[in-house]
Amino acid sequence: MSINPHATVLVTIFLLLAASCRSAAAFSLFLDDPCTVTDFPALCRGTIKGLKNVNAATDVAIAELMKRTRQARDIAKKELKVVDGGVSTCLSNFNSAFDNLDKALKSIKEGDRFSLNINLSAALTDYDTCSETMKGARGDNVIYKSAGVLYKMADNCLALSTLVN
């Protein structure tokens, strides 16, 4: 049995058209709300406060993440004076994440999507490592909770970065 080459071409064209129509619909949805691509859209919306420009929204989301990382780093410094129990690892990771986020902001301005994604992924790993380190800590662990929120914010930033032009 032979395959009709014209039928193959028609099927391919149909599939490409269907995919492009879906992409166009999805793209228009992103224009209205870039947070639709994130895993934590409510957190995203609270962070970007209605921005529709993806580059600006990603920039604002990263800047807010840097602010909260600085706050978590300050808490970790105070906590380290009392007890270590993994806090030193988190402090180091918060410093590393902050540096990665600073590089990510520069990458947006330079239009370097590859470096943007690399640096956001690195920050995401930093927060995850802190969370894993503090997971077994007893009591109401502020650092563990902070690392969890920072992880979600970084995950949102990474998702937003996929839309950056």
Automatic annotation (TrEMBL):
Record-linked InterPro entries: Invertase/methylesterase_inhib, Pectinesterase_inhib_dom, PME_Inhibitor
Recorded family membership: Belongs to the PMEI family.
Pfam families: PMEI (PF04043)
Alphabetized GO MF terms: enzyme inhibitor activity
Protein name in UniProt: Pectinesterase inhibitor domain-containing protein
Species whose genome carries this gene: Brassica carinata (Ethiopian mustard)
Gene3D superfamilies on file: Invertase/pectin methylesterase inhibitor family protein
Taxonomic classification: Eukaryota, Viridiplantae, Streptophyta, Embryophyta, Tracheophyta
All residue ranges annotated as the Pectinesterase inhibitor domain in the record: 26-160
Keyword tags: Signal
CDD domains according to UniProt: PMEI-like_2 (cd15800)
Leader sequence residues: 1-26
